[in-house]
Design goal:
By secondary structure, the chain is an alpha+beta fold. The protein has helices at 2-19, 59-62, 91-96, 120-133, 144-147, 151-176, 190-199, 279-287, 291-300, 302-312, 326-330, 446-459, 507-522, and strands at residues 70-74, 84-86, 105-109, 137-142, 183-188, 210-214, 237-241, 262-266, 319-323, 342-344, 358-361, 372-380, 388-397, 400-401, 405-411, 417-424, 431-438, 466-476, 482-486, 493-496, 500-505. It comes from Danio rerio (Zebrafish).
Amino acid sequence: MIFILILILTASVRTHTHTTAPQGRAPQTAPVSESAPENETAPVSVSTPVSETAAEMTPESVGAPVLQSRFHLYHAGSLFEETCALRPYSRESLNTCRYNSSDPLVIIIHGWTMNGLMEPWIFHLASALKLRLQQVNVLISDWRTLALQPYPAAVRCCRQVGQEVAALLTWLQEVAQLSMDDVHLIGYSLGAHVAGFAGSHFRGTRKLGRITGLDPAGPHFEGLPALDRLSPDDAQFVDAIHTFTKSPLLPGVGIKQSVAHVDFYPNGGTFQPGCKISDIYSNVYQYGLQGVPKTIKCSHERAVRLFTDSLLNTSRPLLGFRCRDNSAFSRGQCLDCSRRRCNTLGFSVRREHSGGKGLYLRTGPETPYTVFHYQVRVLLRGPLELLEAPVSVMLNGTGGQTGDVPLILHQHSSGQVLSSLLAAGADLGLLSSVRLLWKGDPLLSGWLRRVHNIWNIWSGTEPEPELHIWRISVKSGETQQKWWFCGVSSNVTRLQASDQQEFTLCRLLHKRSSTHTRRRTET
């Protein structure tokens, strides 16, 4: 399956290379005009005037370099024609485009393109930034003339495009008193590395305020030193969202290694919920070879959608938890927010260093993407040790219930604790009970399996295996609240395969836990 995907993608790139004329020139959804749109031709003074001492600067008058990148100021709308072409080294275009030098600056940088179109996500993100921040200059970096090439050629242009973005920022610093502290570069795929190369031109007290990498491209960047890709050195704060990195089943197109102060890995950073690799067949049938990137983009572009969602759905933030890897996170071992071990994905991220470990979280398949994380731990008593146990769990609370959720409980090193992560689509509020169904077929540890087999041979019988459950604890990742649940008996609940049992709040343990939580809150 993967081999077929790679062959189709390669064929798509080759076809694109031979059918684009001239090579390297991008067909445009709207003309990249060197003048402002008709409805913005009258010069308008900015709120804080640009430097009055700076002479009128044009490429003709000062011999400024001709940039292959274009920059467009976004005000509103979803069409490229509605943006205003801001010409570097032309002070008049600042006034024409209504650039406000008292507002911060956000620059959106796209990635590689196979069709030369300005994609809709750019305008959705720009609109969300304007809606959330109100007073902000949103610029769109248009480098399609260089991005519309075979991928390796586009990669080689990233450093040049980064230099052109840096040239724009330097000019704005000179004529509009732009502070580098007020600059936020948001780059998608190859655009993330372009943002890094732009930031590398500013050091010391002139470092850029922030760079956000949205699934930074992996091919030709994975494993490279910091100077040759996006890195934490490129801005005062760098955050990255990884949504389509390589995995044992898929090659991926995003970079897997850490490239930021804070790296988020939604759903492990691989294929995302709601995206199906099997859709490639129907997409190719419907869209031809363009169906291949359409399938891949679902997960790759999810980073953009998550960041945009963080701007719009502020009441439902996405929380990531620091963890060794996705496997440990899936086992429910990393829902701890003490000592700043968790952080908010997206625009409102807390600016700090995550200590080299990624932050992991689960999301839903569509907006709003927020899900609620619960750690389910089963404490055992008795001689039976499990490597893992397939179960079905239902959580009940004041905010609703989960329904029966299939989980694999994994053994801790102690051998007496099984745990897993459960993701719920809604906040369950205060939990009241847990219903657990053990599906049986446990994988016994090696020496117990041998003892078990010897016993069966000697006795001629095979006794039913049992789970001896002492307690069940459930912890909410979002609220950090923890509940303890007991069976009908105050001691041990015995479960055989296919047995189902409801566990209710342990009165004494729950009372102590609530008192401890209240004391910590007061402290």
